[in-house]
Amino acid sequence: MRKVVAAAFASLDGVMQAPGGPSEDPTGGFTHGGWTVDYWDEPMGQFMGEIFSSPFDLLLGRKTYEIFAAHWPFVEGGDPTAEMFNSVTKYVATSSKEPLAWTNSVALRGDVAAEIARLKQEDGPNLLTQGSSILLQTLLAHDLIDEFRILIFPLVLGQGKRLFGRGTKPGALKLAGTTVSTTGAIMSVYDRAGAISKGSFALEHPSEAELARRERMKRED
């Protein structure tokens, strides 16, 4: 079986749109493209190197695929990331009938969640997402992500496409590793940890004021 590993850059308020440049994705009037660039340092490069250190196939949404396909095949000078991305299989969630020109690209059409669930049952390397905020919402809604590798940057963007949307299924995570860059980015690995465990810090015998507060909340809801 294969795991789906979601790797993403996110701001402190969960925005992941256009981290690499102003022209990546200005849709929705997003004007902060390129917000990760000034934070890049050696520990961040090492964290990304660990993500790519095990065999993987890429699992991408159409827009991220188009960004990558217009960039990585044209990087010269033996860049190791370009060589990796150009050689691996790219699974692309798309409703377009247009052919995928980047070598080793496979379109996932129709019921994308079912297609990815089928891929997970096969033998092969893990399926690694990059960006792909819309695809991530499908993966989250269908509980298909096994591991998160998230880089949280110390800034607030306010608007933009978000890592966790409204359709995300609740669930607990277990921190498997974390490090901090010299520029303040927090880089963490999380594994799935089942259902959310709940408890309460409330008094065993609530006060009259607390009971009244609860009643007000019910009326105002």
For this entry, give a set of tags.
single chain; 221 residues; alpha/beta; Dihydrofolate Reductase, subunit A; eight-stranded mixed sheet; 8 strands; 26% helix; 22% strand; globular
Summarize the structure.
It comes from Microvirga alba. It is built from 6 helices and 8 strands.
Account of the 3D structure:
With 221 residues, the chain is an alpha/beta fold. The protein is built from six helices and eight strands. It has one domain: Dihydrofolate Reductase, subunit A (3-Layer(aba) Sandwich), CATH 3.40.430. Helices cover 26% and strands 22% of the residues. It has an eight-stranded mixed beta sheet, sandwiched between helices. The longest helix is centred in the last third of the chain and has 13 residues. The mean pLDDT is 96.
User: What is the domain tally?
Assistant: 1
By CATH reckoning, the class would read Alpha Beta
Spatial strand arrangement across the major sheet: 4-3-2-5-1-6-8-7
Query: How many helical elements?
Result: 6
Q: How would you spell out the order of helices and strands?
A: EHEHHEEHEHEEEH
Uncertain segments of ≥5 residues (pLDDT<50)?
none
- Quaternary arrangement of the chains shown? single chain
Secondary structure tally: strands: 8
Q: What integer value in Å does the Rg equal?
A: 20 Å
**Which architecture name does CATH use?**
3-Layer(aba) Sandwich
Look at the structure and name the CATH superfamily. Answer: Dihydrofolate Reductase, subunit A
CATH fold-type name? Dihydrofolate Reductase, subunit A
GO molecular function, one term: 5-amino-6-(5-phosphoribosylamino)uracil reductase activity
Protein name: Dihydrofolate reductase family protein
Organism: Microvirga alba
